[in-house]
Amino acid sequence: LLKVLSHIDSILRSPRTPPLIFQSSKGPVQNCIKKNGQRCGFEHLPLTIEMWADQLIALKDLHRSLGKLSLELLPGNTKDPQYNRESFRVEDLQLIVDSILEELEHKKKNSQTQSLQTLSAIVSHFQKLFDVNSLSGVYPRMNEVYTKLGEMTNAMRNLQELLELDSSAPPTVVVDTVGKLCDIINKNVTEQVQQLLGTQDIHSIINKLEEHDCFFPPFQALIQDLLCLLEVSKVDDILPAVQNLK
User: Fold this and answer.
1) Is the separation of the CB atoms in 88 and 59 below 8 Å?
2) Which of 39, 46, 51, 76 is deepest in the core (most CB within 10 A)?
């Protein structure tokens, strides 16, 4: 037994042993002294071995947690995590971690590639929609589209206010309302023209216009002759000039 304890003690004191493990075992127990006054030399072994046992149990729990994480991040992994194994090595845990890191790096590269492909498709679609022949023309056309959109939005808002429509009214409603308003205005103008000409018949309107074309040129020529003959410059001066001739 002493030989085994000596072997364990030499391992604990080896440079390969983590300092924290050995130092953490120091305490009152280490001051144990045999009856003959000599130090035991193995008084720190129970605490150190107890710590190792706890670490081995924690290693098994850590392996189980990493296995579950691996199944979540690597759904295609069909390997049995082997949770029921009695012992695990650090190399087993490192292998799981390396597999997870490799898969995450692979997904990151694929995501970046897909993002570039999506961006390229969006730019190509924009070029087709707005007739842009080169990449250098995309930004100017975007600015132009944004400016035009702002102008149309402002115009639509102003029309909605003038027509007393709700701000949520779609453009089709605005256009229909403007069309109805134009129809009302055109109808009123037609009625006013008919009243002015004193007729409700389009043929009568045409006849009156033809009569006007026949009458006005000779009348205009007569007036011009009178202006020259009477040496006046305005039509209003013709009648006084004639009266002065009497």
Assistant:
1) yes
2) 51
Residue 120 identity = S
Structural domain span for residue 99:
61-70+86-130
Beta partners for 39? 33
Mean pLDDT for all residues in the chain: 76
* Angstrom distance (rounded) from CA 60 to CA 199: 107
**Dihedral angle, C-alpha 202, 204, 206, 207, nearest 10 °:** 170
Work out how many domains the chain is built from and give that number: 2
**What is the distance between the alpha carbons of residues 45 and 50, in angstroms, rounded to a whole number?**
8
Q: Is residue 93 part of a domain?
A: yes
pLDDT at residue 82 is higher than 70: no
Residue 23 domain flag = no
What is the per-residue pLDDT across 175-197, written as a single tens digit (0 to 9) for each? Answer: 999 888 888 888 777 777 667 66
